[in-house]
Amino acid sequence: MFRQRLLLMWANYRLHHILRLAAEVSLGVFIVTGAVTTVVTVTPIRHNPTPVVASPTSVAPAPATKPTAKKPTPPPAPAPVATPAVTAPAPKPVAPQPSPTPVAPTQPSPGSGAKKLVPTPAAAPAPAPATPDQSAASQNDSNTASSTPALVTSGYYSSNWAGYAAMTGKFTAVSGSWIVPTVTGNGSETTGDAAWIGIGGVSTDDLIQTGTFNMVDPDGTVTVSAFYELLPAPAMALTSFNVKAGDTMAASISELPSHKWNITITNTTSGQTYATVVDYASSYSSAEWIEEDPSYLDGSLVPFNDFDHVKFTNGSTTRNGVVSTIAGSNADPITLVDSSNRPLVTPTVLLGSGTGFWAVHN
User: Fold this and answer.
1) Helix, strand or coil, per DSSP, at residue 25
2) 90: Cβ contacts below 8 Å, ≥ 6 apart
3) Which CATH class is domain 100-140+148-361?
4) Cα dihedral 30/32/35/36 (nearest 10)
5) What is the rounded distance in angstroms from the CA atom of residue 54 to the CA atom of residue 57?
6) CA–CA gap between residue 296 and residue 351 (Å, rounded)
7) Quick one: pLDDT band at residue 97, thresholds 50, 70, 90?
8) What average pLDDT score do residues 23-49 get?
9) If you ran DSSP here, which 8-state letter would residue 100 be given?
10) Which of 7, 98, 284, 336 satisfies CB 3.0 to 4.6 Å to 170 for a cystine?
11) pLDDT given for residue 145 in this prediction
């Protein structure tokens, strides 16, 4: 019995001894004879050959802190410069197209077809086209050039037309330029004249044309206007289109699809332009560059204005689908005559490589 107690006490002692050794190892302290004599803190060696041992009362130094480089402070941004507001310029107002006004039936009007168009009587052969020396006057845009190119002596007579007309082929466009003449009347009645380009009207009742018209009242007042006309409708005066003597005009008429036609007339001196598209059934039978004696609604002719000459330039036409000059279209000259077949206005031979002529008042 006593031996068993002794064995139990030894086992209990050994168990406590083992537990205490485990605690000492885990806590890192050594207990001698049951009393704590010294507490030693062991600092692990980290790449340092000499261990650093702190005394029981010493405080471990704070780990060195790596200095942090200060970022450079950027310079302050410059104050924004105020930019003046840019205002887009207001668009220039576009001048409205002048509204055409039908010429009153009581007033003379240009645009009737060729009247009494007959071959000229047999005469001497027409002079050859002007040489550079002969046509020097044609290169002057003045209506008062000192020399006059040679006049034609063949072609056709008409009681109301002077100029050139191409009458063989299908014509779908025509163009030309002229200078508005300075005109005077007879002091006793209304007189007039017109310069224009057109398609049709030589041997048919259709005629589409555009040009300028001069009318002089008995008191000498001169009215100049631009117009276009689609026979048999009356001429349409472009009342807001400004024209005066000496202005250079340029005009064109060309067919668009579906019997529509573009009509454009420009005062190249002032820069003003009128353009319109109209429906019109044309015979395509002729193309003309004409100085005309207008007429009243009943067909009677207006007494003709007096002037020196009208100069036509840049004449062309589209004939059978090909663009050609007046000469290239085989146009014939037409002389305006009075009731006794005496010439009133005679065209010159073609000038400027077949693109122009003068209509000279006799």
Assistant:
1) helix
2) none
3) mainly beta
4) -30
5) 8
6) 33
7) low
8) 43
9) E
10) 284
11) 47
Q: Where do the structural domains in the chain lie, given as residue ranges?
A: 2-36, 100-140+148-361
- The beta strand positions in 19-170, using DSSP E, are 31-32, 35-36, 100-102, 118-119, 156-158, 161-166
Comparing CA positions, the residue from 275, 279, 254 lying closest to residue 98 is: 275
Tokens matching residue 128:
């050859």
Q: In sequence order, which residues have a C-beta less than 8 Å from that of residue 314 and are 6 or more positions away?
A: 175, 176, 177, 250, 355, 356
Rounded CA separation 271/268 (Å): 5
The bridge status of strand 156-158 relative to strand 332-337 is parallel
**pLDDT grade for 2, boundaries at 50, 70 and 90:** low
Phi, psi of 15 (to 5 degrees): -65, -45
Read off the tokens for 349. Answer: 């031979």
Q: Give pLDDT tens digits for 158-189.
A: 999 999 999 999 999 999 999 999 999 999 99
CB half-sphere exposure, 327, CA atoms < 13 A? 15
Determine the Cα–Cα distance for residues 241 and 85; give it in Å rounded to an integer: 40
DSSP 10: H
